[in-house]
Amino acid sequence: MKHQPLFTNKESKSLDSLAIKELGFHEETLMGMAALSVFHANEDLWKTAESIWILCGTGGNGGDGYALAHILYQEGFPVRCFSTAPNKSEAGKFYEALVSKSLGVTSNLEDFYKEWEEAKEDSVLIVDALLGTGFQGKLSKELVELIETINDSEVFFYRLSLDTASGWDPNSLGKPGETNVFVYADSIEELGTRKWENVGFIYEKDSIIPRYYESIGFPIKTHLNKAIFSNRYYLEPNPESAIQALKRKNKDHKYSAGSAIFYGGETGMEGAILLSENAFLRLGGGISKIFSPSPQICSLVLKEDLSKMTKTSSFSDTTSDPFFIKTKTLVVGPGLTKFPKDLEGWTLPEDKKLILDAGAIPSFGTKLPKGNQILLTPHVGELNRMTGKTHNSVQAAYDTLVDYCPQNNVYVLLKSFVSLLVCPDGSSYIWESPNPKLATMGTGDLLSGILARYLSLDFDIPDSVHLALSFLDHSKQLEEPYPSAHQILKSLVELV
User: Fold this and answer.
1) What burial class does residue 149 get, using C-beta atoms within 10 Å of its C-beta: 0-12 exposed, 13-18 middle, 19+ buried?
2) Interatomic CA distance for residues 218 and 211, integer angstroms
3) CA neighbours within 13 Å on the CB side: how many for 489?
């Protein structure tokens, strides 16, 4: 599984301290490396600007800004530097002095506003080096006014933030009385570490703002231990492995190719469980059986395919069926409107894996089934119902699930524009590859079938989630702007 560690602001500061105090890095060196990385990563961007303005704060982020200004000036770019106040860190003071020697005296905010009023529309690329990840507390009136000017003015054609967008705080999203004033960055350069608090950074309805990671020599691997790292990771798409894993081997038989049971589809909603099972089979699953509370399920299934197995039953009848003993994977929930009563407190056999989706996502207070391989796949509304709490950010969801999953010994995959998998051992994985083509009826049922396919091949739950999300990512290539779940499945089948 391709994944990269995500560090909280607190952990990033600890890494900074480790590098300087224990490993002997000079803070000036780290600032210089950060600035050099940002410079090279954006060389094409600098060339588009008539003028580059860098807003520097009083801390380490401001020091990075001064160091970047020095490099830009020496490389011949038209750069100006504005500061909110003199820098407080020794390394920051070093680069501030360097800028004063090369560019002249650093301008203040009064100068900034004067020049802003005279600047032409779309003429300035602005670099936000105001606050960084270490800032906590409320913004001053002066900073609120400055950030609102940056966001609203047509003078600035591009806004680039160093490490994080100044003022951004995911924990305040949706809270009454919170102003949520932050720089509307067009991109963020994360320096030294990938930042947990930046996950899900969005100010436009339809897109996550891009973030780019720049390595500056931080001792990341040294830092990965349970005492000082919270076990959060960023998943990188692995589309080719996702395809190859689904291809059948010559020696496969119907059970080694994957077996699964699907339970769901109340009267009038049978299509959901049919879609899940269809995805499993058409992507190479060897054998499956549908169980449903609907009296019509048999006629619907056999009308579609006489070779399929199906039965009208309760969930408890499913577990006494001879096929139950032979299968590895169970999917419960697509097409259900309520949690099956006979699933409460039920014990999943050790050799099986269970996916709970849609109507099988329990409400708060419902007794969960027991077992070591149980995956719940709620969307945000179902997560709120499941936990009795409201979540306005992926960070808030994590705070709930990092307790919920170990307490209930379950895995939870939150399905949203940013997906979050939290495991019983406390580890968590972020999938930040929004796919608007999946915002249609039936794609949750489709995902359940794809997850069942990977689980039936003996991949563990984290790997199955990673592969399933990577595989679904291929649907972005569809020319159809708003494909149905069946169209998405058809396109995916063609890949294998």
Assistant:
1) middle
2) 18
3) 25
Give every CB contact of residue 346 below 8 A, 6+ residues apart in sequence.
315, 319, 369, 370
Cβ pair 210, 198 in contact under 8 A: no
CATH of domain 3-230: 3.40.50.10260
Q: What is the pTM of this model?
A: 0.92
Look at residues 333, 331, 276 and name the one whose alpha carbon lies nearest to residue 449. 276
- Measured in Å, how far apart are the chain's first and last C-alpha atoms? 20
User: Is the separation of the CB atoms in 354 and 374 below 8 Å?
Assistant: yes
Cα dihedral 315, 321, 323, 326 sign: positive
Cα 349 versus chain centre, distance: 32
Q: Does domain 239-493 fall into CATH 3.40.50.300?
A: no
Per residue in 171-202, pLDDT tens? 777 666 566 799 999 999 999 999 999 998 88
Q: Which residues contact 308 (CB under 8 A, 6 or more apart)?
A: 277, 288, 289, 290, 301, 302
SS (H, E, C) the chain: CCEEEEECHHHHHHHHHHHHHHCCCCHHHHHHHHHHHHHHHCHHHHCCCCEEEEEECCCHHHHHHHHHHHHHHHCCCCEEEEECCCCCCHHHHHHHHHHHHHHCCCECHHHHHHHHHHCCCCCEEEEEECCCCCCCCCCCHHHHHHHHHHHHCCCEEEEEEECCCCCCCHHHCCCCCCCCCCCCCCEEEEECCEEHHHCCCCCECCECCCEEEECCCCCHHHHCCCCCCCCEEEECCCHHHHHHHHCCCCCCCCCCCCEEEEECCCCCCHHHHHHHHHHHHHCCCCEEEEEECCCCHHHHHHHHCCCCEEEECCHHHHHCCHHHHHCCEEEECCCCCCCCHHHCCCECCCCCEEEECHHHCCCCCCCCCECCCEEECCEHHHHHHHHCCCCCCHHHHHHHHHHHHHHHCCEEEEECCCEEEECCCCCEEEECCCCHHHCCCCHHHHHHHHHHHHHHCCCCHHHHHHHHHHHHHHHHHCCCCCCCHHHHHHHHHCCC
Q: What is the pLDDT of residues 427-485, one digit of tens each?
A: 999 999 888 778 788 899 999 999 999 999 999 999 999 999 999 999 888 888 888 88
Task: Name residue, tokens 């399929």.
Answer: 308
The domains of the chain are located at 3-230, 239-493
